[in-house]
Amino acid sequence: MECPFCGWVNKAGEYEMLLHIETLHAEGDSQFVVKGADPTPGAVPDEDCQYVECPVEGCAEVLQLPELDYHLELHSEESGDNLDPDQGTEAEAETKTSAFGPSRAHREAERHRRAEPGSDKNDRQANTISAWKRLLKMPGSSSSHSILSSKRSHGEKHGGTGRPSRGRRFGTSMLGQYAHEDRMPDWLVSLLKKSGQTASPPGVVSVLAVLLEQSSSTKYAYVCHPCVQHVSKLKREGGFCGYRNIQSLCSYIIGTESQGHKHFNNTLPSIFQIQDWVETAWDQGINSHGRLETGGIKGTRKFIGTSEAVTMFRLLGIPCGGQSIRNQDPAKSEAQLMEYVENYFQSGVYDATQRVRTTNLPPLYLQNKGHSLTVVGFEKLKDGSSQILVFDPTFHDSSYIIRLIGQTFVHPVPDLALRPYRRGTRYLKAHREFEVLR
Q1: Residues facing residue 64 across a β-bridge
Q2: Which residues lie within the region annotated Disordered (predicted)?
Q3: What domain count does the chain have?
């Protein structure tokens, strides 16, 4: 197939040709290209890397193209589609009963297994996920919902890792597609002020601990303090994952009344409050190079990362420290990260004989290229591999998990319930560098 405009020959398929035409030969602005993209003149080219926007309604997460398939699977699990009776029942056990009858675990699992008709919106989302999975598996296709950027300059990493030398103004590769906006749109300001954030109640960590105890694949595991809350993004809010992870860290400070907790008045800080604190810290000379690098973040949708988190916590007198992990071999970076996380949680263990070791430690803020997570635990599997346990702000806890808080239960398929919280080689292998804030 030959492009009618430039003669480029495409051997992959029709979609690739349409993408080529929309990207390079569109009349006016193309929906496939981010407005304001700013390739740096003279920059040393890095590896080609395509970025896409998640096609699921309301998500708006921007991620690397190879990660899209896994990301869509997590959306499926978030909606409960993963609780399929054909996917395994190795943990079937007799339900513990109470005055209220069978445990909620079995009732909820059965409800999901029957695939009860959901809303039209859920059906549309499931169809979208299935369609994109099929599209990604087409031979020779590199299709995507929206190709946001095909190159990143050498040393610049999207979303907060591998920052260039201090004092240099960042562009879209570091701050996202809205790197140059002076003010977020009014509709988004209203959404954030009205809805704030979605935060699960304390207790999800305790549910994970019980599931780990019941998992046949877990050799041993560690979890952070049980008061930590999973803070998730609102639909349509975009790339505020850095703020949501900061809020999860704040939930620990509030819940344990740790140093600096009075600044929060028992309430998670809003995105606007976090922005104000970061800007105030810059005014006071704390990591003030951040203002030069970002051009200021107040009232904008610019991405933030570990640097801004450290800046805010230092202003509030809250102790914190960071660790950078970098290696050209992703496998070595992953191994170093796992060692760091396990050593961290080991430091808070009081009874190492327990299979699942609950600690009173705060969670970790983990930044990788393009995204950030809250690490709430570590798991060693019986096959010798390791996984981190995370709260991902892109996804929400299912109502099924929330209903287990404070309950006595035996889960029929604990590994399926744990899967949305586990991140192992499949996720981490795409990254050569990480930043960890503790």
Answers
A1: 51
A2: 77-126, 138-171
A3: 1
3: in domain: no
Residue range(s) defining the domain that contains residue 329: 34-437
Contacts of 278 (CB under 8 A, 6+ apart): 290, 297, 304, 308, 311, 312, 315
The three-state secondary structure class of 326 is: strand
Give the pairing type, strands 386-391 and 422-423. antiparallel
Query: Which alpha helices (DSSP H) does 114-215 contain, by range?
Result: 120-136, 172-175, 186-195, 204-214
Residues forming beta bridges with residue 329, ordered by sequence position = none
The yes-or-no verdict on residue 144 having pLDDT over 70 is no
Tell me, what's the pLDDT at 370? 76
> pLDDT tens digits for 388-432?
999 999 999 999 999 999 999 999 999 999 999 999 999 898 889
Residue 29 domain-assigned? Answer: no
Residues ≥6 apart with Cβ < 8 Å to 338:
378, 386, 388
Q: Lowest mean pLDDT: which of 6-20, 153-167, 330-344, 396-410?
A: 153-167
d(CA 275, CA 130): 38
CA distance 296 to 273: 14
> From CA 240, how far away is CA 261, in angstroms rounded?
23
Instruction: State the pairing for strand pair 356-358/51-53.
Output: unpaired
Q: Which residue has the higher pLDDT, 349 or 317?
A: 317
CATH number of the domain enclosing 300: 3.90.70.130
DSSP-derived letter for residue 394 is T
pLDDT recorded at residue 40: 38
Q: How far apart are CA 85 and CA 168, in angstroms?
A: 54
Segment among 105-114, 229-238, 331-340, 394-403 with least mean pLDDT:
105-114
Cα 176 from Cα 199, distance rounded (Å): 24
Report d(CA 21, CA 80) in Å as an integer. Answer: 38
Inter-axis angle of helices 186-195 and 271-283, to 10 degrees?
A: 110
Q: Answer yes or no: is 322 within a domain.
A: yes
pLDDT of residue 323: 94
> How is residue 399 written in tokens?
């109502």
Cβ atoms of 233 and 240 within 8 Å: the answer is yes
* 413 domain residue, yes or no: yes
